[in-house]
Amino acid sequence: MTPHAAEPVFFVSETAVLAVPRHGRIRDVVPQRQGGFRRSSFVERDMLVYEEPGSGRTLLITVDRPVTALLREALVPPEAESRAKEGPAAQSCERAADAFRMPLAHRIRMPGFAALLLTGALSLTLFGVHTFGLGREVTATVTHVEGDSCRITWQDPWDSSRTQRARVDCYQGEKPGDLLRISARPWPVRGEAADLEDSRFMMAFGVTVSGLAALVGIASASVSGARRLRLLRRHVCGGEAALRHVGRVMVPWWSWAAMTLGLAGLGLVTLAYGFGQPVHAEVTGTTEYDTCAVAWADPWDGTPLTAEVDCDGVAAGDLLEVSVLPWPLRGEAFDRDFTPVGLGFVTAFGAGVALLGVGLHSRRSRRGRALVSTAATSAGAAAAPSPAPLRKDPAGDSADTGDILDRSHLTEVSRLLLARDVLGAGPKRRRPEPDPRSGPWWRSPALRRITLASGIAWGALIVLGVTALWSGWWWMTAFRITTDRPQTAIATVEYRHDEFPLEPWLLPGAAEMSFLTADGRRIVTDIVHADPAPAEGDTVGIEYAAGHPSVAWIPGDPGFRRGLWVSGAVAALALARLVWCVVATGRILRRLLRAARRGQVRSLDYLLLPGGEEPATEAPMLVLFEPGAQRPTAVMDVVPGAILLPPEGTLELRSVPQDPSAAVAWIGGEPVWPTSPLTALAEDDEEDSFRQYVTDLVPSGVALDAPPTPG
Predict the structure, then answer these.
(1) Are strands 136-146 and 179-184 parallel, antiparallel or unpaired?
(2) pLDDT surpasses 50 at 127
(3) Distance from C-alpha of 636 to C-alpha of 421, rounded to nearest angstrom
(4) Where are the extended beta strands (E) located within 497-593?
(5) Three-class SS of residue 383?
(6) pLDDT, tens digit, for every residue of 235-290?
(7) φ and ψ at residue 103, rounded to 5 degrees
(8) Cα-Cα-Cα-Cα dihedral of 640, 646, 648, 652, to 10°?
(9) pTM over 0.70
């Protein structure tokens, strides 16, 4: 190299000489690390990414580290570099930097799983406020013990003349006649209750874990979105080196979930053994699962408290050292032997899985970088060699200065959105589509996904399943009573089941009743009832099927008939929705397959226009042009895998004259299946809708250079 010549000359070999023009642009300087066992990270050389002036050609020049500064000065003299900083490219990058600065409120992103977890946390919080905040603490009497639950009675705190009955959790060896402190729940579930130990602990634990997981998900998505914007700004400004960071933006969701689990375990360990108080609790009882019921006096205010902890080799009456938890989990305790080890294992396991996810994701990103680079290169090749300049549009209306539906402007929009998608998580590799003319339609992965998504109404299927589980035995009871010879009997209410808010005023409630059949057999079964509900110990007249005496009902009960009508109507609506989806999807598939197999072929130009925030799952759009035309004639949403097709080119559109909206595009010898009908832009309202869609696609605060003026 002769750097002080009029143009630096590089001797590529003994016979080849390359002259490099000055006053270009150094796009990036990449350190080249040398391999080896002893000097694995020692930087000896640099690779300069140099763009020649005028031609836009990019050269990769690798030199020794001491020559880097000399070569920079030779290629871009200081005075030229200062002028370049004031040139249009630098000013465009400054405008791009301003355009991609978003308000803090717009940077916060909430993925779907985080929204679901946050909804769960808010629901549990509302449950806790309603139960323990608005409820009344009362003393109830235990009437019966069934395993780990107790039937209790208490005087209604809002109406002292009314006795309430319910079932709550109890673990401390309660016996009938014992007193138990509970929280009586107010309207609209008046008559229900919750214990003040286990239920409150599980509610607080659920709120903590789900809320923490939601916040971690929101933070990770927001940070990833901010980094995507920064990489997009570098890419639009000409920094192709931003592709080196592709794949490092997102971390797998299960890695975040494991990290949340580890943080929850660490937080519980810190709360219990860092801020908790060790006390000597008295063992009041043991169970077969190596757990002990313990009682102690609260070290903060002296209130008698009870809980259940793990224990081994301890008998009733012994003293056991436990760690009692402070607020917000006061009333809970952990042993000081096994639980710290278990929580420590949870913390270590969560941290290990989180780090494993990060490592595997980074490795997979390096393997898939060639695919992403190819997609970015094809996206950039669709536009001019120089980066598309951006400008800040203070008025927010760029359509007034030109026609945004011009082909060149749509190409710039496509390039901007493809750069955004490439610099994000990156879509999955597109699976090849089989030829529908030579085999059955279900061989196509895209058609199978479309069928499962639209042909099966999953919501209606879930509603139908829940309705069948809830009310199936009502219909079986009605069928048996109608077809079998009914007998009458007097039944005694043994136990009234907990009621949901819709019971028993809209749907019937249920109670466990016992009665004697005509041949002297004693039958205990559940029987539905309306409001007012019978109390435990009351007697009611019933009818039962002679051949199936466990099938019984209260004659003329309005709740039973109302439940049949309500559940039947819900099931009928769900079935109608299922049938409608199957019929509609079958009709659409027949139309598409007829167009793909026997349709007429037209050759059109196309432009790929990505849409939405998640290119791997949301449908992009094909914008169709007549050959050589500058304005689009039709648009069509296609399957998400089309994001990895060439960003523009020529396609074959197959359709039948009688049904032009059912069209299938063929690109590269493979069908690209649509997710919506072909929309022609012949009508003014369709063109206006597409114009607004293109305007909304550009991120808030970002505007491309003014599109060409029509004519």
Answers:
(1) antiparallel
(2) yes
(3) 20
(4) 509-516, 522-529, 539-545, 552-553
(5) coil
(6) 555 544 444 444 444 566 677 777 777 888 888 888 888 888 889 898 888 776 67
(7) -60, 155
(8) -80
(9) no
